[in-house]
Write the structure tokens for this entry.
Amino acid sequence: MGKSVAVLGLGRFGRFVTDELINLGADILVADSDQTAVEHYADKVSYAVKVDLFSADALSELGLENMDVVIVAMGSSLDASIMCVMVSKEKGVPKVIAKSSDSRMGEILLKVGADEIIYPEKESAARVAGKVVSESFLDLLNVDDDLTVVKMTPFSSWVGKSIREVDFRKRYKVNVIAVKEPGKRREPLTPDTVIKENFRMLMVGEKEDVDKLISG
């Protein structure tokens, strides 16, 4: 059985997250003050509720205590985000993830109880910058403020060499965690795996080291 997830706020970010959760088979509750946005998901999720996200009383009636995760998706409204985070934690939600438009807002939401802050615009900017500076860059995921996972194709200097020969830990301070050829099953990764030109490679490391890797 999938996790129970509540998405509070159905702006662009909230809709994107909800659509992905639907694809992953999660048990989803969505809530927003916009009736049209709520109705769009009425037949797609377990619960779709029109609610005043500024009201503690209204939020308390959503059943958030039954959720494994709450995603607070209103990065443009600090007051509503604070209210949603606080009520969620008061209801005992194990993990509350909040969208933030800037670091100051993120700091405030952490102080009132958020477990994790997401900066969508910042992560999108990092993706664009990565694609600009490196033809090998495909995607990245910031696990937290310091740790980053990057997906990329190999540099030409890696092709034909083994993971051991390139020595990613020593040379780049990153760890290769998976490699895959498009259209084929993922092969077991060993130090003797020989890097091919069409590999898709996943690597993890400190953000500073991943930035240096991408920039070459």
Observations:
- Confidence is low (pLDDT under 50) at residues 128-133.
